[in-house]
């Protein structure tokens, strides 16, 4: 898969590069990012270098891309969004935002673009996009709910977070699902 830029006029999603390493280090060092994700903790600059130089190219090559979230081409990196693979062929969306970028609708706009990419002719051609979050991650759940993800339940010990089994909320979006807030969420 060739790296691509996605934009809707609100956000610009582009492949992170060496100029984004410090922003990734800072973002992943935020206590909320550490609390709700599986990034290493404490997060170091070496972790960000490995992510940009090794993990991101590998994920693009294997059809599970990552993008940096920005508000303009060449603008500062405000977060990350992309796909992970957990055993099924369906991509699982994951994202984080730096504290100064939260509450502005950027995660929702970015996630909408990424889901469109997943279902599009030039994207992944997925039949389903999965979303998982540690139980209690209300901000992430709000993004998924706004995009029309349907809540499917709780996977007990469904994710290892730094070696500790954690319960996760699970939801999914299908290509034909309405892109409007879904009902039936626990939050």
Explain this structure.
It is a single chain. The chain is globular, with a radius of gyration of 15 Å. Helix 1 packs across helix 3. It has a single domain, classed as Aminopeptidase (3-Layer(aba) Sandwich). By secondary structure, it is α+β, with helices and mostly antiparallel strands. A hairpin with a 2-residue loop joins strand 7 and strand 8. It has five helices and eight strands; from the N terminus they run ββαααβββαβαββ. Strands 1-2-3-4-5-6-8-7 form an eight-stranded mixed β-sheet, sandwiched between helices.
Quick structural overview:
Helices cover 29% and strands 27% of the residues. It is globular and about 40 Å long. With 187 residues, the chain is an alpha+beta fold.
Set out the fold topology.
Elements: E1 6-7, E2 12-14, H1 21-28, H2 31-36, H3 45-61, E3 66-70, E4 79-84, E5 92-97, H4 106-119, E6 129-134, H5 138-146, E7 150-161, E8 164-173
Helix pairs in contact: 1-3
